[in-house]
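Dear H.,

Thanks for agreeing to be a second pair of eyes. The structure we're designing against is below in token form, covering all 252 positions.
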């Protein structure tokens, strides 16, 4: 019975192209490379890109070891290129988005804390409202000038003063200092970005922490986003923030 090697040699002598099977790993590499485009929507799909590279490398090694028996090297190379393109692109976008959330969240939170530290309660309160809404009230320079139909906004301001007046008074009189500690985390909730920032509040009675949940909102005029303070929590326990725990961002 003729061996496979002698059969290949005989086909080569008479000019026939020997049949070569395509490796399963090369097909898997290409399929996973295409699927890795999903990483732009869900970062966990980066696993497709990693798997594509692994299967692609295995396929190339197998073809190189027995080129007369196996084919699929071009498929494996295509899969690796797609996985690097999509997986790497998604990772770069994620890094850029995280950096933006850090920067915008920190800038907004610092501005809010600065207003509180100066005793500018009303200015701090305006930063808890989306910029598009603030622009709609640009004709109003004072909370007291709001029309009667916006009485609920006046009530919100009075609640805001009650919640923050003691802290503001301690800071402005020098009995308490407040300083940035960390960006605890960033993310996305209901299509909008958010960042959780923690400030250390130091006084003679001991240290506590102030948490600021800063979020983004669409700004139709800028065709982009504006940031505002969505939630504050004095006495915050680090790493206890939960997003969407009760249908909204909530700190425990």
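And this is the sequence the design step returned. I haven't edited it by hand at all.
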């Amino acid at each position: 019975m003729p061996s496979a090697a002698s059969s290949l040699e005989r086909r080569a002598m008479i000019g026939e192209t020997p049949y070569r099977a395509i490796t399963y790993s090369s097909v898997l590499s290409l399929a996973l490379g295409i699927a890795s485009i999903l990483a732009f929507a869900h970062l966990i799909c980066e696993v497709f890109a990693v798997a594509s590279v692994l299967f692609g490398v295995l396929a190339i090694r197998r073809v190189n070891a027995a080129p007369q028996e196996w084919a699929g090297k071009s498929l494996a190379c295509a899969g690796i290129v797609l996985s690097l393109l999509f997986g790497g692109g998604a990772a770069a976008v994620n890094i850029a988005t995280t950096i933006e959330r850090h920067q915008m969240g920190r800038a907004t939170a610092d501005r809010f804390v600065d207003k509180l530290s100066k005793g500018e309660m009303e200015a701090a309160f305006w930063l808890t409202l989306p910029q598009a809404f603030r622009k709609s009230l640009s004709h109003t320079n004072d909370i007291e000038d709001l029309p009667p139909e916006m009485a609920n906004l006046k009530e919100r301001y009075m609640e805001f003063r009650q919640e923050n007046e003691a802290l503001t008074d301690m800071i402005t009189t020098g009995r308490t200092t407040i300083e940035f500690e960390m960006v605890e985390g960033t993310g996305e909730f209901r299509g909008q970005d958010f960042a959780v920032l923690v400030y250390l509040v130091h006084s003679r009675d001991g240290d506590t922490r102030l948490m600021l949940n800063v979020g983004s909102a669409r700004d139709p005029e800028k065709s982009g986003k504006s940031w505002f303070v969505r939630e504050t929590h004095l006495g915050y326990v680090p790493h206890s923030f939960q997003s969407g725990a009760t249908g909204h961002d909530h700190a425990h």
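Two observations from my side: Confidence is low (pLDDT under 50) at residues 245-252. The two ends are 78 Å apart (CA to CA).

Warmly,
E.
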